[in-house]
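Researcher: Let's try something more involved. This one mixes different molecule types, so please make sure each is placed in the same coordinate frame as the others.
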Amino acid sequence: MTTVSRAFNEKAIIKAETRKNILAIADKIGYVPNFNARGLVTKKKFIIGVFFSSLHDGTSTSFFSAAIGSLYDALPDNYLLSINDIKRVNSFEQLVQNRVDGVLVVSQSDDDDEFIYQVKSSGIPLVVINRYISDREICNIASDDFAGLKDGVDYIASRGHKRIGMIEGIAGFTSSVQRRQGFDQSVISNNLTPVEAAIKIGDYSSKTGQEKMAEILALPKEQQPTCVVCGNDDTAIGALRACYLNGVKVPDDISLIGFDDIFYSSVSIPSLTTIRKPIGQMAGLGIKDLIAIINGEKVDIANRVKIQPQLVVRESVAKL
Amino acid sequence: MTTVSRAFNEKAIIKAETRKNILAIADKIGYVPNFNARGLVTKKKFIIGVFFSSLHDGTSTSFFSAAIGSLYDALPDNYLLSINDIKRVNSFEQLVQNRVDGVLVVSQSDDDDEFIYQVKSSGIPLVVINRYISDREICNIASDDFAGLKDGVDYIASRGHKRIGMIEGIAGFTSSVQRRQGFDQSVISNNLTPVEAAIKIGDYSSKTGQEKMAEILALPKEQQPTCVVCGNDDTAIGALRACYLNGVKVPDDISLIGFDDIFYSSVSIPSLTTIRKPIGQMAGLGIKDLIAIINGEKVDIANRVKIQPQLVVRESVAKL
DNA sequence: CTGTTAGCGCCTTCAC
DNA sequence: GTGAAGGCGCTAACAG
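Model: All components are placed in one shared frame. Result:
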């Protein structure tokens, strides 16, 4: 019995031949170790909990799918992924403490902090991706949105734009703040003119993007910016639609740039110049770190990983 | 010990007051039953396996997110969802037999049949949604794509269109066949003219939608259809882009209709008239049936549930 | 390197 | 209505 157990446990000491024989027989009779029994002894569940800020709103569908795809690519065999919604965690003990070996938070908002600290203080292995966490005791992998947006606006400047506007993300979100700072930084270094009346607070949704863009287009012609920076692609897609409804041509009459590089930004009309957020990389590295922590390996948690986003040039920014 | 166990099991016989007391104490000391131990005895895993045809290609991201959202809405507490990719099931025993209480297949293609029958023959509770399965021993919930497409083409006819084309879905997929039949049916009953040279085989992707639409637009003006029916919204979004690149205005110069009602069809330029596929309903009913089967309740498996899709009128079909 | 023993935490008998 | 005993299938500790 023990020998069979050892045959199925990688690190166990067992003669190679014995293992081979056992595995062969197991395969023949269709034997597979029982996870419940194994877990009862080892206190493991072989399940990773993945928690999104929200499965319903806020999370762009492309973002969600891309994240899950990459998560699976990096996940060891025999681990299961339990996808969850932070807002729907009724019983922390029941859903988290007692059912998963580790937690990966795909965080989009400060609102998640309560949950994150609950996990942290309960001692469950934890990795937070997608949003910068200042607490250096939490393993964190984020994208450098500041640099990303700065690159984007630098590109706009290089195309000859001077007067620019912006439709920001949700007020208070780390990503919104960082993107705005990248915007400001590039405005300064390129000596651009931010158009006050064309800088709006949005909420990362297409609907609001459309509304805010309509407001910008309603400004007197001479007060309008030549390019509007959108907090994300969903916002830009809404903005695109506002232009369409107002008979304004993109990029001929006004230029637009997004952030994220969701799938539909490549097929929108016109296709969207944007900044690609490395969601796949973040997810992959996140899982790898989390598994390492679970296995008790040393991970340099204090090392704030920042992955560089990448400018994707398509059709929505005109050369002036 | 036994009494505590009973307190946590709904159907157990126990004095209401005793249960209340136990639950209160459990709550205070943070006790939660251990799932592994419980499962070891009851042979349950409290995990539902959800299997998609493919997490990577083929599955529209909106479709995927919508399905998962609805799945969770219908899932009993204390159940976990394990989202998987049929193509990535390496070890059936390890990933399925030994880890989940039931399987929900969100099927998009005949290719899934092998997996579906493997589940069926292993006796694991099974529900297949999203694609029609003729085997009446399998619980099946699908949408009536035939009726959906017929409604769509009827609508087109009511707008005065006569000459129509089509970019079909992936050859061989049940959904492609049914949609095509709905198309044919409406063509006959409305006495429309299907334009042979404008009926193309696509693959449900935007890329191919764009290519095929470009071919249609390359036809001599007088041979072109006034409306093209697209196999799904992704195809239509690609087609929209082909029109844009060729300077053809939708719906002024040519009309387009999609299928699915993915999120981006509401913000595309122009927004897409389409047929809403009831993915949420299918997922919800599917989980409900699956749980019932798991719990040994009687479910009328032979009853082929067909949910009606719904026409969503937006901007892409002109009135002639 | 392999086998023996004990026990993980719960639920299911069966007594009371 | 409640409690005592046994065992689910596995792995850890120990002996050989």
